[in-house]
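PT: before anyone asks, these are the final sequences, not the draft ones from last week. 789 residues across everything. Please model them as a single complex and drop the result in this thread when it's through.
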Amino acid sequence: MVLGLQWAQWRDAASATTRFRRGSAQVAATVGRGLAAPTYMGRVDGLLDGRADVDSAGLARAAGSLPSNGLIEALGAAAVQGDRVIVTASVPASSPVLPVGVDLAAMPTNREAFDLARDDGGPTVAEPRSGAFPGQQAAVIAYPEYGGPPPDSTTGRRARIQGYLVGLIAPKAVVENSLTPEALRTTAVTVTDGGFTFYASPSASARRHAVSQRSVPVANRTWTVTAWAGPGAVPTRPPWWGTGVALAALLASVVGLVALLRREGRASRARETARAEEMRLITDAGPLLQHSLDLGELLPDFAVQLANQFELDRLGVATANEEGELVDTFSIGPAPAPSRTVMQVGATTPEVEAGQDFVIPLQRTGRTVGSLRARSRRILERPQLDSIRAVSDLLAAALGNAQLYQREQETVRRLRELDRMKLSFLSTVSHELRTAVAAIEGFGSLLVEHWPTLSDEQRREFIDRIARNAGSLKRLVDDLLDFARLERHALTVAPRLVSLSELAQQTVEQLASLLEQHHLTLAIRPDVIAFTDPDAVERILGNFLSNAAKYSPPGTTVTVTVEPYGARALLAVSDQGPGIPADERTRVFTRFYRSETEATHRTRGAGIGLAVVKEFADRMNAVVTVDSADGGGARFVALFPTEPGMLVDSDVAGRPIPDLVE
Amino acid sequence: MGSKPETGVLIVDDEEDMRALLRSTIEIANEGLHVAGEAVDGEDAMAQWREKRPEIVVLDQRMPGATGLEVAERILAEHPEQAIILFSAYLDPDITERAAQLGIRACMSKREISRVPEALWKYAPEA
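LR: through. Structure below.
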């Protein structure tokens, strides 16, 4: 009798629990439907027809023609302005949470969502952040607007992005509208995204009992709606119901076990499906990666596929440059902050937690050709990591091929450039040869034909001009001979111990005519010895001086310096001309190179002198460089060895001279 | 020939030596020719041409900025009757053909300097 009563009362309590459970599952489903369908935003987006330049009235018209689902608190149109995403219109008008003129991308989580939406071509919800919007827990959903249908490739989408349709999703209203006030009092409901709680009903602090849970996809993210029995939802049980409770607990655990087994079965089927999709990704990616030689085309589409498959919200590929340094080549989403800890994934890594940055080195025949850095929204277990590593191996092979191809292209480009420079050199030289010859012939025939009628002053001037042009002719012929020698690699040097001070002094005296229009200052310290070829020093100094004469204005000062420099001897020529831009300083020593500045167009010269200087220097273990003189002009420097067999440090050769000069 | 009025010549060349050679040649010829102006590039040439309205322009082909042919095209667009002689260190058929199309009166090599006064007389407009 007692047992019967207990059973009846227990049955009452159990059926109340069942009723409650059905009810709260219903709640979760209703709320879930409301969240799962941001169709309202999609339809507004459709009405805007991909345009980002809508005004507030237009936005209000588009929004007003549709019944709201209560999920969207505010709606805005935002335009991309460089790195910023500026709200240009909002509904309700001048909404305090989406004010016109504000830069939504200033918040890093939003920035990430905008970048993902842009790359993906579809709606994206930002990672929620506490306190992001005053007075409520909400997140931004962004629809990318390209001024028409989204372009097919990621590169295209990045190029065409105009702005975003932006909605503020706050689930509070949806939850509260889907429950009666009575149900809301007795049912605890929370809506969460990972560890972030969007909504918690007033009774959500109650102990969890008879829980019903539902995962809801909201664009790219997954929100969880949890409902459980709050106070008063199920009848309280008198203590003498122990037997019933025990029985119920037993039954519940059996039911639970069955449910668990079923869920396990479902989960393993889901895993198999996911695994099959991952394998498909690898088989699809293989041929694509093997056959594509252009990294720019290959990486974006590949990365988007990979990101979708493994729910990566950040993905970056870095490739090794010629010096072996890794340089970011492509990324989806913002690059991870350098301060974040990054986990290195290898063959034995068991799993990577959700939200953890990880890196996989891309290696080919033992050489690192790049790295793949990413972060997933879900836990990646061993099978997924194996798949990602398999794809990484394919990517490494592709990068290797692409780099070889790029290097070949680079060689072809360099050869073409050299060819172009040779042609330009020959055309410059031939024009200058003709000009010099025409001047000599012309003034010569004026002298011959009109000698008796010319004044002394005219005769003198014509003879000077002939002499000067003969000098140019000589330099041009020297240039041509040097050109031929450089082509044959036939410049020879015979270094010996010489006084660099005396040699410089003599050379400057011989070449003083070059600098007739400049002030020449000598800062030559006595008795500086160098182990070098005197002819080569003359050619080097001659070239430095004629450059200074050519490229610095008349009336300015040219300084020649000779001094000891550590264990070496320094010879420098500085001028007060425009100087040489930092990015051109190594190239000026390249054959046929002439700076593309206004000054060079006004001067004669074939662009070979400094290449000869470099060649001479290389053969004597000397170093030549150019940097800036005090006051911004150019300073050409040669550092000579001071004894036989002295090698110039490679770090001296590579480092800018000002660091070394006291 | 002395009955002709003074014929002004505008010399356009970026090389100072070449300008001096032309100037001396014209001055020494002393046959009613005078140098109206000297310009060092296309912009300078246009400015001086507009200001001095010379009877003849002697244009170098290879200069920094605009080439001689480009300068000639601009001058002839404003004044199709302007007498122009292209005076170049290097004349190839493409250049002479284009010069003829534009309406340049003659192309001369810089190595024919002694024939310049003669050519100037030949192509100077009749008064």
